[in-house]
Design goal:
Elements: E1 8-12, E2 14-15, E3 18-19, H1 28-31, E4 35-37, E5 43-45, H2 50-62, E6 66-73, H3 78-83, H4 112-128, E7 133-137, H5 144-148, H6 150-158, H7 164-180, E8 185-189, E9 202-205, H8 211-219, E10 224-226, H9 229-232, H10 251-255, E11 268-271, H11 283-290, H12 293-302, H13 308-325
Parallel strand pairs: 1-6, 6-7, 7-8, 8-9, 9-10, 10-11
Antiparallel strand pairs: 2-3, 4-5
Helix pairs in contact: 4-7
The protein binds zinc ion.
Amino acid sequence: MNALKLNKFHWHLTDDQGWRIESKLFPALCEKGAYRVEPDGSRHGGFYTQDEIREIVSYADDLGIEVIPEVDLPGHALAILAAYPHLACFPQDFCVPNSWGIFDDILCAGKDEVLDFLSQLLSEIAELFPSEYIHLGGDEAPKARWKACPNCQSRIRDLKLKNEEELQSWLFLKLAQGLAQQGKSVIGWDEILDGRIDKSLIVMVWRGDGKDAASKAAENSNSYILCPNQLCYFDWKASEDSPGAHGISTLANVYSLDPSSYSRPDLCLGAQANLWTEHIHNEAELEAMLLPRAFALAERLWNPNADYQGFLTRLNDLEGYLDTLS
Ligand SMILES: [Zn+2]
């Protein structure tokens, strides 16, 4: 990252399939939420201790890289619910899932104890990262449970909200206001545009080519970060027969990213690539998906007037240069 002048590391530390960061306030998050059991009975998982997190943050800082943590809420939270089931709308014995997908059980937005839990937990996590930013997710949160939950419904009535999307907006803003007291600005996936969005929130534009979400963010004067999945998802295949999932994003696709072609480029804070590791089995595979597409992203962002043919030539030199570093 340092060689490519990629200066922000967005660290997706939590998801349905695992909780990956030590909490001293809520130890069950790691005891239970960090491990899943495969169909053959084997146990997989693990987490970073707070000391390890500090070491990584400081190592990154030495290289000029800021680490931005993400705690994904209120969906993609089954690892939390496996540890603390009472935080769901309808508590039951939740498991950390060993399959991928979008799950209906999410954190309840109607219970005060969920707010207390999240504000304590986020404050503990925010403390570990000097970055002014923290990402709270907000993506892929089905509303089936909230529609049926008496607590969520009475929250909607009490606050005179229109629907469950507005309930999510309210929850997000409430957490963001708490974090603002620690000097943090909150980022969320572009679903946060679906309800009522406050100007203070930063939108991470990810769906499709990103044009729609960027225009909506621009209409509301929200700052945004670009990572449209058609171009910037490095878990997608780089070619028809290379490893990956979901779709194809070739080197040339990545190179076609043009932040100036989106609405209100003055609101664009930057761009990033996302490498989800669900279907990546080892480091060699990970590296093959990351490179050379990361080179293309870095050059587009730092040298937008350069051309693709020239890039292909420079790529050879860069690969030689990187070999000298390792
Ligand atoms: Zn609820």
